[in-house]
Specification:
This protein is an alpha+beta fold. It has a domain of 60 residues: SH3 Domains (SH3 type barrels, Roll). The protein has 2 helices and 7 strands, in the order ααβββββββ. The chain starts with a helix and ends with a strand.
Amino acid sequence: MIRLGLLILATVAGLLIVLTQMGDGNPRADRVAAPPEDAGAAQDAGAAALDAPAAPLPAEAPAEIIPAARQTPPQVNRFPGPPLEPSPEYAGTTPPPPATPGEGGPILYVTADRVNMRAGPGTGNAIVTGLDGGTAVEATGPLEAEWIAIRTPSGQQGFVAGQFLSTTAP
């Protein structure tokens, strides 16, 4: 154990002697970059000084400049996909025209910033779409229910909680 301690002590002493003899000076001093010159914030490094007057702009654009409209290639839909076909259950029928509020039931307005319209009355039903605040919808069911059946201006039908609907426009 004493031998190991003496060996470590001799190794550390040898390293200190070598470092004091060879460690003088900075061997990387010749590789250190010179400090940058003070330049204005608007001037890039290596750019001409900003104090010189700028050359006047020519009256007309040089002939070698090509307008951007000629440089941009036209957009081509290379993979349009197959033509759309109606679902089998709707084949041969025409979709109903979009409903506009005021054709049937009373007009209600969404009072919250954003409300989910659901497929059925209750939060357990799937979300059909989201309605932004102030959207006018047509009530297609009783107004006294907790969930009111509605139709959007685009013709989608669903249910919204009655607490988020009002008869007065925002």
